[in-house]
Design goal:
about 650 residues, Four Helix Bundle (Hemerythrin (Met), subunit A), two-stranded antiparallel ribbon, two-stranded antiparallel sheet, 6 strands
Length: about 650
């Protein structure tokens, strides 16, 4: 009953005085249902759907616990056991089944992506790595060409790791200073913090000046991070100038954001942070398509809402008011965006039902209600309108964002030993250490050292034996140019192919046929890729072309030959030594000069001239028979004990 003093339907008759407003008002008593109830299946489903969205459920819970007998008014806390129903429902449906629904959306999204590449033998991870190789470019270090100038020495200073670490320490200290400020602090305390902030601004300004002098003005602004640093410093200087001038006419407090913006520079430091940042950026490539789909949904529902609910009279006591209505397209979009976030969407729906007052028609003079809406505005179509919109927007469309991000973060649940596109940024960074001019080429002899400086699964690591590294280089088999250099793109693609085993010729397989087949598949997936870039990705080497694989294979063959030869000679010398030990000789029959010049039999001498010595394999070089007998005798310092030649 609208009069809370009446407890039954029979008593709910006549008039009563409403004291709830500023002025007293006489109203007629009415027996009504609550907006959300369980009188039939349809209303029960609507009530449970509203509760599952997390909006208005405390009020529904209160109404359920206050329920009494039929045709009787509510009584506070009459059936508290009904609260158990809502607790169980929240655990089972919003916390469990809704998340299953989200998981199904993610799985369906991934399956649809896999269907697009069923005709291609390349897997999703392989395609992502190749896509990275297509778009990757050498990191430009902007190193001065003349190494005898002051600019080069300055560049070497600002590009050194110690300089970067110093800047990071200054950012950390600046953050601590920003954290030390509090309200109603003493004047002296604020003055100290102010001077410290000014000092940090001066230091960061010096950093920008040094980098501009080292890189030159044009090259400095080619780097996005440098532009960010410059804007941050410029904003901090502007804040100091405004503070010194005491310009109180304009609120310039937003300039303090530039000081905290320096923390963003920490994102580019650290291997794990760079991987997360790269994956987050990759997610934005697919988000525009999801945003376009959601924009179409909002556009359609906004147009429908303007046509159906645009003539409802604005009422400040209702949820259709001057800030929340369907009068214009922009206001309809704002209302739908609010509903998509779940903010009192059910109250907006109830304010759009039939029986609402209508706005006067401005085309009729004097202003009267249009004849088409004499029975009132609003419609029960609002139930279908808002329920369908909440389902499509909150439960379906917005979860596509989660699907896109989860798809890019798939590597978190994958074996870490499998190469992924998030690993390839390390190659670009380490390549820049050897190709500081960013010409896209390095000498082939630097390949071994570069592989050992890259961690698995991309590289081999510093503890990898040279034999394994040389075998990896033989499989990579990049073409070597006339100046004995290898190309950036070819090297990166060769690393990807060997790590993921993408059409690598093994045994008696036709290498040229596999390379041609891979070129064909890449051209199908990336149809607009120029042939020049395709030849760099998958070069088809002729038998007469010089490649890295041929160079390192010949080095391995030569080293194996030396080791085999040394092994055979060692066996011969060991056999000779054994014969001399077990053969009985009469010392009296030997010449006196032989007995006096006798010395231990040497075995082998170490040589560092092997091709694999650099990687840890020490080859043994034999000693000729002439060297065995012509080496002089050396006596021990203590008592003339003979020394071994080994």
């Amino acid at each position: 009953c609208t009069d809370s003093s009446m407890k039954s339907e029979k008593e709910c008759r006549g008039l009563y005085i409403d004291y709830s407003r500023d002025k007293k008002e006489v109203k007629r008593r009415e027996w009504r249902r609550h907006e959300f109830h369980y009188d039939n299946v349809c209303w029960a489903l609507l009530t449970l759907f509203t509760v599952s969205t997390g909006e208005g459920w405390p009020q529904v819970l209160q109404h359920s616990t206050d329920v009494t007998e039929e045709n009787m008014g509510p009584s506070r806390g009459n059936r508290m056991e009904m609260s158990v129903f809502y607790v169980v429902y929240f655990v089972v449906f919003p916390f469990f089944f809704v998340n299953i629904f989200v998981a199904l959306i993610i799985i369906t999204f991934q399956e649809q992506g896999d269907k697009m590449i069923q005709e291609c033998s390349l897997e999703k991870n392989e395609r992502a790595c190749i896509d990275f190789a297509i778009s990757a470019k050498p990191m430009t270090r902007y190193m001065p060409q003349n190494r005898q100038t002051f600019q080069y020495r300055l560049w070497h200073f600002v590009a050194s790791p110690s300089f970067e670490y110093t800047v990071l320490v200054m950012i950390a200290l600046n953050t601590v200073v920003l954290m030390m400020k509090y309200h109603s602090a003493p004047t002296a305390y604020d003055a100290v913090l102010k001077h410290l902030n000014t000092a940090f601004t001066v230091l960061f300004s010096m950093e920008c000046i040094l980098k501009i002098m080292a890189f030159s003005l044009v090259n400095y602004f080619r780097d996005t991070w440098n532009i960010f640093d410059f804007i941050t410093v410029l904003g901090s200087i502007t804040e100091i100038v405004v503070d010194l001038q005491s310009l109180n006419t304009i609120n310039m407090s937003f300039l303090k954001l530039f000081r905290t913006a320096r923390l963003i520079k920490l994102l580019r430091q650290g291997y794990t942070i760079r991987i997360l940042l790269w994956t987050f950026v990759q997610s934005f490539k697919a988000l525009p398509y999801v945003c376009l789909l959601i924009a179409m949904l909002f556009f359609i529902y906004a147009i429908i809402g303007m046509q159906v609910f645009g003539n409802i009279k604005l009422n400040d006591e209702s949820h259709i008011n001057q800030h929340n209505n369907f009068k214009t397209f922009f206001s309809a979009l704002m209302l739908l965006f609010r509903s998509a976030t779940g903010e009192s969407w059910q109250e907006i729906m109830l304010s759009c039902l039939s029986g609402q007052e209508c706005e006067p028609d401005p085309s009729i003079s004097p202003l009267t209600i249009s004849p088409d809406h004499e029975g009132g505005c609003g419609t029960d179509f609002a139930y279908c309108y808002f329920v369908s919109f909440i389902f499509f927007s909150s439960f379906l469309m917005l979860n596509l964002f989660v699907a896109v991000i989860m798809d890019n973060f798939e590597y978190l649940t994958r074996d870490s030993s499998i190469l992924g596109p998030h690993h390839l940024d390390e190659f670009v960074r380490i390549w820049g250490e050897y190709d500081r001019l960013a010409c896209g080429r390095i000498h082939y002899t630097a390949m071994y050292e570069m592989l050992t400086h890259m961690s698995p699964p991309l590289g081999l690591g510093k503890k990898c034996p040279a034999k394994i590294a040389y075998k990896r280089l033989v499989l990579m088999n990049m073409p070597v140019d006339e100046d004995m250099s290898v190309h950036f793109t070819s090297t990166l693609m060769s690393l990807i192919r060997t790590a993921l085993d993408i059409k690598i010729a093994r045994g008696g397989e036709d290498r040229i046929a596999l390379d041609s087949e891979l070129q064909k598949e890449i051209s199908i997936i990336w149809p607009y890729l120029p042939q020049k870039n395709l030849d760099l990705l998958v070069p088809i080497n002729k038998d007469t072309d010089l490649t890295v694989g041929k160079i390192y294979a010949s080095m391995m063959i030569m080293d194996y030959f030396k080791q085999n030869k040394a092994k055979k000679l060692r066996q011969q010398l060991e056999a000779q030594k054994s014969n001399m030990i077990f053969k009985r000789l009469d010392a009296s029959t030997l010449p006196e000069d032989i007995l006096s010049n006798a010395q231990p039999l040497p075995m082998m001498a170490h040589s560092a001239g092997s091709a694999l010595t650099r990687g840890g394999f020490v080859a043994l070089s034999p000693i000729s028979p002439q060297e065995l007998f012509l080496q002089p005798i050396s006596s021990d310092a203590d008592g003339g004990q003979q020394q071994s030649l080994v």
